[in-house]
Amino acid sequence: MTQQKSYIVGNWKMNGTQADIAILKAIADAAASDMTVDVGICPPATLIAAFAQGAGGIGVGGQDCHAKATGAHTGCVSAAMLKEAGATFSIVGHSERRADQHETDADVLGKAQALHEAGMSAILCVGETLDERDSGNAIAIVTGQLAASLPDSASADWLSVAYEPVWAIGTGRVPVSEDIAAMHAALRGTLVDLLGAAGASVRILYGGSVNPGNAQEILTIPDVGGALVGGASLKAETFLPIIQAAPR
Length: 248
Ligand code: PEP
Prior knowledge:
Blueprint: E1 6-11, H1 21-32, E2 37-42, H2 48-54, E3 59-62, H3 79-85, E4 89-92, H4 95-100, H5 105-118, E5 121-126, H6 130-134, H7 138-149, E6 159-163, H8 177-195, E7 203-207, H9 215-219, E8 226-229, H10 236-245
Parallel strand pairs: 1-2, 1-8, 2-3, 3-4, 4-5, 5-6, 6-7, 7-8
Bound molecules: phosphoenolpyruvate.
């Protein structure tokens, strides 16, 4: 199996205005001189078109999409709309949407399917709550989320998975490396079960309080193929060192 490039993706959540295109440009300019890492940014939907114009070699993605192509779904955006705006991929199943919008695994599967049909790739997020971690069932719960959210049409080259413990997002808390390694190994096993040998090449990103100080340790854990970064992706000064910490 060929070694995949590391994949570092910024999730800007509900942050960013046109004035912040300067931040994207700073990241794009620095990343342009280093093609050994794949970099993506998911701005709010309002900025996708502008970011796509200035992104250079950086991929621009959505943070979510609706499962349907069109219809009476006020406030929602379809995969094809993201694509028309310039996105080439989207996050689906982020824990903030699972919590705030009560999204289920079945909902996430529908969204992933919509991305596939629109010709966009997916970053499918999974992760356990603190109660689930403390119950000792985190691995079964998280691998179960993956199995239940992955469409039949899924292929290894279309998919990235992001393991994001809910209790580590935006909190400054990070699991010990052994726990990250155990979860990524379990997700790898599930991917191979579901996709066959090609499942070995899917990049499994870690997400949850990644910062310039912990990135190198996290990104060199076996089966960690990159990072999904929230807060630290909002500034070039904190996002670029994470990209630089990725293994080549
Ligand atoms: C995220 O929301 O995907 C995330 C990982 O956030 P943070 O890096 O801020 O914990």
